[in-house]
């Protein structure tokens, strides 16, 4: 970057009360978030500084509960003022923007006309009643997504609802919900979309994606479902701190028991960790203070596609794990035979496909696993 | 003149359109149109009762705790479960943390920009700003740095979340120095709401959408380390509420005293009550249930007196006038027509009357029921604003805003007590957190409060599965469409009579909408 342009950037940052040192520190924490070493901090800085202009963002709300916006507001490193004032120009974000009504909507058109922005969509696309199950500005809300997708540099679907309709699409899908990818394809817009499922989205992932787009100027590595492999590459079960209890056959059989207090594995009370691909166990939530399993609840698989239909009843085991070439094996046995890392290397994506395409209210709850029977024969779990 | 329309109403949870008729600078009629239908009640049919806890909280990402608790209470009612005392305290703390989170977020992030002119803060004299902060007893910040941060921002021309703002409108009344203080706290509040949410994350796994208040009790076990974390975050929130939010409210209010003269609305108030006391008797809740209807007296609140009308909303027209326990929700979109149907929000009525719900309703019910702490807080504030002995001035726009912040002050006090109670219970060795039930049939209701008002979940269970589910959210009460008789809902009624200085920028109407925290 030319020296004068760089000077301009620092003037700008200084004017915003951000010192160069703070800025580099921030870039270091973003590097860590992206799974990069601190050595990348200068590169991240260069990318964020690549001009005196802040990257415009349109954050468009569809059939939502506002939980993903709320979740974004829980970001602490960087905090929200830094994100919306120093890194990005968030020209449209209904929940926080000063403007209202048609003046607010104007910001979408103005930004789209200029191009070069990131589009973030929160909430399900609502198709019921010809798109009128969501009305914004006197027309179906989905029109805003269509308009904003046109000139976007990158599109990020945040949260399970935007990814595939989320709980709103759960059977019988009364309001005709669907995800952003499916909707845009249906109106002839084919653009790659970054999918960030879980309900709500984890804010750290959004920040990582934004920086990634700013840093390398292109989309991060995505799997066949548009999910960044960095975040969705292994199961919760593979990284769960309770995994040792699982291997030892130490389970919570019921809530309110001493096993629960001992923080044994929650598999038998319905944990969906073995079939859910996210990095929740180590990115954790709310500035990393805790996460679902640590709080004592089984993972309900909110990061899965069609999660409510596939994972409910949540407090009952519904996993039906099959690995190619090994036959039907309980996850416990998989762990014992392969070890977590090897299972990933073998492409445990098959685990996911075992639970997909199921209709109705979830799969048949398991009565007893072969593994459990074996244990029972030996005198039961410890 | 054509109606003035705000669509979308921004800085709220969800999607709302507001349309007002303005004659000679005053609103003479109003319509509130909810923009979204998702069908949660239908999705839950046939599922396991405990699943309602996980799914129903996703109605609202700002108040998932309240929805989760109401869903769990409905299941516990149906399955005849009485939760252990520890679970009661833990739920109170989580619920209280959400209320503090929500009220801080509401006052600063969602509503402050209606009263605080960010651009005017550029004109503030820094020394005067410190002097004013000291006089107001509100916390200070690096006001100079904050001012130059805004300056850089405005000069750069990329206004981000302030794009196309209405700053400079004649209804902004604060002096530049007070604007600057408020902007500083606006920025700080974003960390404070996150601190409040961290209390929930420790006890519930994450926020929004938590994991632990399962029917039967709680899945969370307190440890010393976790309780330390809860206390740490709570103390930061408490300090902000006491030392910034309340003094800011008292400093800003005198500039907007005209807002005591409009925005009253229907004048009927309903609360189901929230925060269980040891007896688990709803009447003894820390914020009790009750109905105020037209006078300054409280009556018992009886859910059987609710009927939901759909004459002006997009649902099957024959399914109207039903009590939620037998309620039905089937969409039937027609068109946006103010004389016929114009909203996804039904029209719930209590004893055939529209009811305002929310912090003002709860605080009035508690005040008139003789709650000593609430009385002290309200009477003290009225005296400071020169309205001693006149609680009726709270029935206004300004009163609705102030009641929410005063409630935060009351809850800060309660939270400290509950955390102490939990620590004591654990020390005494009470290790009961969860009870099982083998029931498979029954009807239950979770009548509770979200930060934004009275919330009801109704569940029928047959053969171990949900046979019927209905929800009446606070926004259904407050953003209600007209009923079968054409009577306006609380927001619609509150808008009537409001001054509108500039129909292109109906800032005063926006204030009234935001005062309900939709
Ligand atoms: S089943 Fe759940 S609790 Fe048990 S080890 Fe796996 S992810 Fe952790
Ligand atoms: S741990 Fe499971 S339930 Fe919790 S956020 Fe991650 S995917 Fe969702």
Topology of this protein?
The complex is a heterodimer of chains A (382) and B (518).
Chain A: H1 3-15, H2 20-33, H3 41-48, E1 55-61, H4 67-72, H5 80-87, E2 88-93, H6 101-114, E3 117-122, E4 125-126, H7 128-131, E5 135-136, E6 139-140, H8 142-149, E7 152-158, H9 159-164, E8 177-178, H10 180-186, E9 193-196, H11 203-216, H12 229-232, H13 236-239, H14 243-247, H15 258-261, H16 280-283, H17 292-295, H18 307-311, E10 322-323, E11 327-328, H19 331-338, H20 340-345, H21 349-353, H22 370-377
Parallel strand pairs in A: 1-2, 1-3, 3-7, 7-9
Antiparallel strand pairs in A: 4-8, 5-6, 10-11
Chain B: E1 4-6, E2 16-23, E3 26-34, H1 40-44, H2 49-56, H3 64-78, H4 85-111, H5 126-136, H6 143-156, H7 176-204, H8 224-252, E4 268-271, E5 290-293, E6 306-309, E7 347-350, H9 359-368, H10 372-384, H11 397-427, E8 442-450, E9 453-462, E10 465-472, H12 474-478, H13 490-495, H14 507-515
Antiparallel strand pairs in B: 1-2, 2-3, 4-5, 6-7, 8-9, 9-10
Helix pairs in contact in B: 2-3, 4-7, 4-8, 4-11, 5-7, 7-8, 8-11, 9-10, 10-11
The structure holds iron/sulfur cluster (2 copies).
One iron/sulfur cluster (SF4) binds next to helix 13 and helix 14 of chain A.
Describe the structure.
The complex is a heterodimer of chains A (382) and B (518). In chain A, 42% of the residues lie in helices and 11% in strands. Chain A is α/β, with parallel strands linked by helices. Chain A has two domains: 3-232, Rossmann fold; 236-377, Cytochrome-c3 hydrogenase, C-terminal domain (Cytochrome-c3 Hydrogenase, Chain A, domain 2, Irregular). In chain A, the strands form four sheets. Chain A has a five-stranded parallel sheet with strand order 2-1-3-7-9, sandwiched between helices. In chain A, a hairpin with a 3-residue loop joins strand 10 and strand 11 (327-328). In chain A, helix 2 (20-33) packs across helix 3 (41-48) and helix 3 packs across helix 11. The longest helix of chain A is centred in the first third of the chain and has 14 residues, at 20-33. The relative contact order of chain A is 0.09. With 518 residues, chain B is α+β, with helices and mostly antiparallel strands. Chain B has one domain: Orthogonal Bundle (Cytochrome-c3 Hydrogenase, chain B), CATH 1.10.645.10. A three-stranded antiparallel sheet of chain B has the order 1-2-3. In chain B, strands 8-9-10 form a three-stranded antiparallel sheet. The longest helix of chain B has 31 residues, at 397-427. One iron/sulfur cluster is lined by residues 236-237, 240, 242-243, 246, 265-267, 271, 273-274, 293, 299 of chain A.
């Amino acid at each position: 970057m030319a020296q004068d342009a760089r000077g301009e950037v620092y003037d700008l940052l200084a004017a915003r009360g951000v010192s160069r040192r703070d800025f580099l520190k921030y870039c270091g924490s973003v590097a860590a978030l992206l799974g990069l070493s601190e050595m990348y901090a200068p590169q991240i800085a260069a990318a964020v500084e690549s001009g005196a202009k802040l990257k415009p963002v349109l954050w468009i709300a569809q059939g939502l509960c506002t939980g993903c916006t709320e979740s974004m507001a829980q970001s602490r490193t960087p905090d929200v003022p830094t994100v919306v004032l120093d890194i990005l120009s968030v020209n449209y974000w209904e929940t926080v923007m000063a403007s209202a009504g048609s003046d607010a909507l104007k910001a979408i058109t103005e930004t789209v006309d200029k191009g070069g922005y990131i589009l973030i969509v929160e909430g399900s696309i609502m198709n019921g009643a010809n798109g009128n199950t969501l009305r914004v500005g006197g027309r179906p809300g989905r029109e805003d997504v269509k308009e904003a997708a046109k000139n976007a540099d990158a599109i990020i679907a945040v949260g399970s609802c935007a990814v595939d309709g989320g709980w709103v699409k759960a059977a019988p899908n009364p309001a005709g919900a669907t995800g952003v990818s499916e909707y845009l394809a249906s109106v002839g817009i084919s653009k790659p979309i970054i999918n960030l499922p879980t309900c709500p989205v984890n804010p750290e992932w959004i920040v990582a994606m934004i920086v990634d787009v700013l840093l390398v100027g292109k989309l991060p590595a995505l799997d066949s479902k548009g999910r960044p492999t960095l975040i969705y590459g292994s199961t919760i079960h593979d990284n769960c701190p309770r995994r040792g209890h699982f291997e030892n056959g130490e389970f919570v059989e019921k809530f309110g028991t001493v096993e629960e207090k001992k923080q044994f594995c929650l598999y038998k009370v319905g944990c969906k960790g073995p079939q859910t691909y996210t990095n929740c166990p180590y990115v954790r939530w709310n500035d990393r203070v805790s996460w679902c399993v640590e709080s004592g609840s089984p993972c309900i698989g909110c990061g899965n596609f069609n999660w409510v239909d596939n994972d409910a009843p949540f407090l009952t085991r519904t996993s039906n794990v099959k690995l190619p070439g090994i036959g039907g094996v309980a996850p416990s046995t998989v762990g014992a035979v392969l070890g977590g890392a090897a299972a990933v290397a073998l492409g445990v994506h098959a685990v996911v496909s075992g639970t997909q395409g199921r209709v109705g209210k979830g799969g048949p709850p398991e009565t007893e696993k072969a593994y459990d029977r074996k244990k029972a024969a030996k005198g039961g779990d410890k | 003149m054509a109606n003035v329309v705000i669509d979308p109403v921004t800085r709220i949870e969800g999607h709302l359109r507001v349309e007002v008729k303005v004659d000679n600078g005053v609103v003479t009629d109003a319509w509130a149109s909810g923009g979204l239908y998702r069908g949660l009640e239908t999705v839950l049919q046939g599922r396991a009762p405990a699943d309602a806890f996980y799914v129903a909280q996703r109605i609202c990402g700002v108040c998932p705790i309240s929805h989760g608790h109401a869903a769990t209470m409905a299941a516990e009612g149906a399955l005849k479960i009485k939760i252990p005392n520890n679970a009661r305290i833990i739920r109170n703390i989580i619920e209280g943390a959400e209320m503090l989170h929500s009220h801080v977020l509401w006052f600063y992030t969602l509503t402050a920009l209606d009263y605080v002119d960010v651009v005017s803060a550029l004109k503030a004299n820094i020394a005067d700003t410190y002097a004013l902060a000291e006089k107001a007893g509100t916390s200070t910040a690096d006001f100079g740095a904050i001012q130059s941060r805004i300056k850089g921002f405005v000069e750069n021309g990329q206004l981000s979340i302030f794009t196309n703002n209405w700053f400079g409108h004649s209804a902004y009344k604060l002096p530049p120095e007070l604007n600057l203080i408020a902007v500083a706290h606006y920025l700080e509040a974003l960390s404070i709401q996150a601190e409040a949410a961290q209390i929930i994350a420790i006890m519930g796994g994450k926020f929004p959408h938590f994991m632990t208040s399962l029917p039967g009790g709680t899945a969370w076990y307190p440890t010393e380390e976790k309780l330390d974390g809860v206390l740490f975050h709570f103390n930061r929130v408490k300090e902000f509420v006491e030392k910034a939010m309340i003094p800011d409210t008292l400093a800003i209010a005198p500039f907007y005293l005209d807002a005591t003269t409009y925005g009253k609305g229907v004048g009927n108030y309903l609360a189901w009550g929230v925060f269980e006391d040891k007896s688990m008797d709803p009447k003894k809740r820390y914020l009790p249930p009750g109905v105020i209807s037209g006078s300054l007296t409280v009556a018992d609140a009886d859910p059987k007196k609710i009927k939901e009308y759909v004459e002006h909303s997009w649902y099957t027209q024959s399914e109207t006038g039903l009590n939620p326990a037998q309620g039905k929700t089937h969409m039937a979109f027609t068109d946006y027509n103010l004389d016929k149907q114009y909203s996804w929000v039904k029209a719930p009525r209590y004893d055939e009357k529209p009811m305002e719900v929310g912090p003002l309703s709860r605080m009035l019910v508690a005040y008139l029921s003789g709650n000593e702490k609430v009385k002290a807080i309200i009477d003290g504030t009225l005296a400071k604003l020169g309205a001693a002995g006149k609680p009726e001035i709270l029935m206004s726009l300004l009163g609705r805003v102030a009641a929410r912040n005063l409630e935060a002050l009351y809850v800060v006090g309660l939270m400290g007590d509950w955390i102490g109670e939990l620590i004591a219970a654990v020390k005494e060795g009470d290790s009961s957190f969860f009870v099982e039930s083998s029931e498979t049939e029954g009807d239950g209701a979770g009548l509770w409060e979200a930060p934004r008002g009275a919330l009801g979940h109704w569940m029928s269970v047959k053969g171990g599965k949900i046979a019927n589910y209905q929800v009446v959210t606070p926004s259904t009460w407050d953003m209600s469409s007209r009923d079968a008789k054409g009577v306006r809902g609380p927001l619609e009624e509150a808008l009537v009579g409001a001054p509108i200085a500039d129909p292109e920028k109906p800032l005063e109407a926006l204030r009234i909408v935001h005062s309900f925290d939709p």
